[in-house]
Amino acid sequence: QVQLVESGGGLVQAVGSLRLSCAASGRTFSSYKMGWFRQAPGKEREFVAGINRSGGSPLYQDSVKGRFTISRDNAKNTLYLQMNSLKPEDTADYYCAADRSFSSSVSPYKFAYENWGQGTQVTVSS
Length: 126
Known about the structure:
It is built from no helices and 11 strands.
């Protein structure tokens, strides 16, 4: 298994930016497809973005397209989420997750991801 630790959350004003990081333990990070999810208070956890093993084929939730960018550095065992033009509705706990399934497709579904971090809180003020 891979262990995941998110960082980079915080309080930011609307239209500001934040960069989230997810550090993975172990030497098999490159064998996992990775995703970012978020959960706002009282709401279901939802898919934000995902990326394949080599860093290609990014998939985004419609509401973040053009504002968020997912990337990874396999040499550093780290996943990133660059968030620009933040909106109050982006306020949530953000989680990174790992999917080791054989499929090359990035999944937007929670059940596809076996390993999860503890989350980092993002608060966007208006």
